[in-house]
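Long-time lurker. I teach an intro course on protein structure, and each term I like to show students one example going from raw sequence to a predicted 3D structure in token notation. This year I'd like something fresh instead of my usual example. Would anyone be willing to generate the tokens for the chain below so I can use it in lecture? Attribution to the forum is fine with me.
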Amino acid sequence: PSLLKARLAEYKPEWLDNLCLRGEVVWGRLTPPESKATLLPVVGSGQGTGAFALDAGAPVPAFRPLTPTRLAPISFLRRQDVSWVLGVAKPGKPIGPLGIRLSLSGVAQAVLDCLDRRGACFFADLTGRTGHLATEVELALWELVAAGLVTADGFDPMRALLDPRRRRAEGKDRARRPRHSIGRWDLFQGDHGAHDEEPPVRLHPHELWARQLAHRYGVVFRDLLKRESLPVTWRELLVQYRKLEWRGEMRGGRFVNGFTGEQFALPEAVESLRAVRRDVQAGAQEIRLSAADPLNLVGIILPGERISAHTSKPIFFRNGVPSADIASVISLA
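-- Reply from a regular --
Happy to contribute to a lecture. Here you go:
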């Protein structure tokens, strides 16, 4: 929320909810938490159900329990991009879904099984079909969101999970912001919202990812992308950027001083850089950004210590560099 408030004038949470409810935007965690496993020999009937079932007698990996946290990174995607983004971010390695599944609590596994069998469900359906209390299902959904396994029609259900006052039905806005928001919960997977009549994606997923990063930053190079949790390597992206340069869609050159290696920029980004260079007043105004903003590049390509994206205090920039009171922000990181 702090990121959008800083970026959009007169931002209202309803804007994001409406985009989700209209089917234009989907949210979820792209990079599931990593869990180290120890294989334990098991003799007897198969373990698990549905797509996560194990053969009888197969060794069962023992995973550390998954703890839900408010710091879980949540991404927002255009619905038409869900398939290719998840195809790259979650390539579907066999141990991946199994490892996450075996890290879940019993209630979270029951909720996940219900969504796998029944499809999208309202909160009341989940409590009724699993036989668990509302508070237990709330914690289970939070756990599944943190694991990158579920999403919802809108984003307000996630706000309801994060707000303890709403979970306790407290506060002066409890009538306007009910404990359980409208909308259904569903699995967060590659075919989310897909339709048979949609044409297949013709571009290579690595090219799509390269374009996504180019539109995010305008200028891209290896050191810049250290902030990103990328499912592809710089070498793979470099192949795509060279192709885009050959087509005339991007330009190669030296756009940012102090960094080695190849750099690429969108044509409009090059023009913006030239305009800033000509305007002596450019950057003179102070800019306030959330620490979670992609432009938080302090300690990456800007001077100073790296500032965690989870820091709640905003960052102020002037002339393209962080302001003098940046030390107080670093102390909170």
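Some talking points for your students: The longest strand covers residues 25-28. DSSP finds 13 helices and twelve strands in the chain.
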